[in-house]
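Exam revision sheet. Question 4 asks you to relate a sequence to its structure. Input first:
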Amino acid sequence: MDMSATKKETPGKREFNRIRNRRAILDAARECFRARGYDNSTIRDIVRRTGLAAGTFYNYFSSKQDIFAALLTDFLGQLNHNLTETRKAARSADEFIYSAYLALFQATASDPLVYELAHRNDHAIREQFGADILGLTMLSLEEDVRSAVEHGLLPDIDQEYLCAAFFGVGYELSLRLAQRAHKHPDKAEAEARKATRFATNLFLNGLRLEAPLP
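Answer key, structure tokens:
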């Protein structure tokens, strides 16, 4: 047997096992949180669902809070990437707003548990990441809005207020959407599109109201 070949294969297999075990733990944690709630779930509950040895768990995570942070980091990392890509690809105000909200709401609907956990643990998020959940989710919005205004996609209005409005609508609607998708997972995609249409119409109508108010 070629021992050098065996040695070359070993790191790859080890990395595969590492990824598989980490994913098994996170999947088990998500199911535990869904079934029992975050506060009522224990590390023992999670380990039992994985089929792994208890000692294996601590090779990856030291606490339940670490698992929560990993779930949230994975969720936000992919979401921020998708939001940035969709906003940069927009060719009109309609597309800028619709595509960004659709990316946000589809992510929330597909994994509403993570969003609900983040909301219920907002204080822990601030301590660990130094920002609130909204700032993490909409990390690059200000830059994208500024670019959209410069390219004429959005009107040149108060960008600070506009971003705050984007933040608030996205955050609050996502929480409601997460609750609905959690109760009726078969309707999650439809709810995501319903929320997207609502938010888009709200902003487009608001942006086009140019008559001065008293």
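Marking note for examiners. Residues 63-207 form a domain with the Tetracycline Repressor; domain 2 fold (CATH 1.10.357.10).
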